[in-house]
Amino acid sequence: MNAARERAAEPTAAVAVDEVDAAYLESLIGYNARRAALAMIGAFLPGMAAFDLRPVDFSVLSLVLHNPGITSRQLCATLGILPPNLVGLVGTLERRGLVLRQPHPTDRRAMGLHLTAPGRALMRKAERTAAGIEAAVASRLSPAEARTLIRLLRKVYLDR
Amino acid sequence: MNAARERAAEPTAAVAVDEVDAAYLESLIGYNARRAALAMIGAFLPGMAAFDLRPVDFSVLSLVLHNPGITSRQLCATLGILPPNLVGLVGTLERRGLVLRQPHPTDRRAMGLHLTAPGRALMRKAERTAAGIEAAVASRLSPAEARTLIRLLRKVYLDR
DNA sequence: TATTGTTATACTCTATAACTATA
DNA sequence: TATAGTTATAGAGTATAACAATA
Fold first, then answer.
1. Which of A58, A92, B48, B123 is the least buried, fewest Cβ under 10 Å from its Cβ?
2. Is B141 exposed, middle or buried (0-12, 13-18, 19+ CB in 10 A)?
3. Count of CB atoms within 10 A of residue B129's CB?
4. Is residue A32 part of a domain?
5. DSSP state of A113
6. Looking at the predicted structure, is the pLDDT value of residue B88 above 80?
7. Cβ atoms of A106 and A69 closer than 8 Å
8. In the predicted model, what is the mean pLDDT of residues B63-85?
């Protein structure tokens, strides 16, 4: 039965897959981290859209709120954004009257970023909304599990 | 001293930021998950580049390896890829002689995907490399911590 | 000589509409 | 009427090179 054996060894037998086995991918930290990050972004998008903010806009405004006078260079380094891609982002936030740029006190090349009063008011609401979204997702975890998750994630991405 | 008080209340005082305070962002699961996912992808890229594979190519080939006969539709549903974006991806893998498409046994609209012998040989090496990359990153975690991390990440992104 | 911010530009990734063949 | 696969295309995100002003 050569033909039968060849068919048995044939790598391309025409069989249907009833249920997909993703066990291997699900054993990888990278796969799970990406899936979780995409789920969080998916949960974030509608809430932030109410303020006409993308997640990256929220991150930038949050850093400016908590670090008045922060420079573009510092924002780029903290968030992993390339300088050319931050220019338009900050420009849009400035045109919306949420941030303003002031001369840096010691470095005349740089500009310090600050929130305007409307910018601070918007961020107060946005951070409350963000906290609610986090709480909704974290409700699947106990408070201790949420703390553990953040601690382990930081171990993964922080150098040493 | 109205002028002094106004300056004190002035939201845009020209002060420099010596060290960026990202404590708020670092308290968010979403921010940490995204940072960790990007770190894992960054570790993955050079290793997979040796096989001329992107992370998404590796994911697709891995699912085809462990699910011979899987359809494009099933790949899209499992990986969150939109059908139009999978066409070129699979086409490239097919032109490279790594996968081949065979008629689906029961649905003449669909095509079952299979790895060729060179495709399986490549994936044996690629999965070994992936395991090494995972181990290198997971070396910052104890085996128990790595298991806990994956379990908590799955709680975040799995519905209920 | 190096760095900050900027412009222009290219490349990749992701998303939408519409079509065909078949279920 | 709905689904699998496909084409064309648009939009968002990310990348590099080069420049002026300043350190």
1. A92
2. middle
3. 18
4. no
5. E
6. yes
7. no
8. 98
pLDDT < 50 regions, chain A: 1-11
Type of residue numbered A7 = R
> Over the Cα atoms of chain B, what is R_g?
23
Q: Residue B45 contacts by C-beta under 8 Å, 6 or more apart in sequence?
A: B54, B55
What pLDDT, in 10s, does the model give residues A91-120?
Answer: 999 999 999 999 999 999 999 999 999 999
Domain that holds residue A90: 52-160
**Position B150 in a domain:** yes
d(CA B156, CA A137): 7
Query: Does the residue A91 lie in any domain?
Result: yes
CATH label of the domain that carries residue A91:
1.10.10.10
Indicate if the pLDDT at residue B24 is higher than 50.
yes
Specify the pLDDT at position A158: 86
Number of structural domains found in chain A: 1
- Kindly give the residue spans of alpha helices, DSSP state H, lying in chain A: 2-9, 23-26, 29-49, 55-66, 72-79, 83-95, 117-138, 143-157
Nucleotide nearest to B84 (CA to C1'): D6
Window from A95-99, B43-47, B72-76, B156-160 with minimum mean pLDDT? B156-160
Chain D footprint bases within 7 A of protein beta carbons: 3-9, 12-18, 21-23
Helical residues (DSSP H) of chain B, grouped into ranges:
2-9, 23-26, 29-49, 55-66, 72-79, 83-95, 117-138, 143-157
Residues B119-138: tens digit of each pLDDT: 999 999 999 999 999 999 88
- For C13, nearest residue by CA–C1' is B85
The span from the CA of B67 to the CA of A24, in Å, is 11
The answer to whether position B73 is within a domain reads: yes
Distance between start and end Cα atoms, chain B = 59
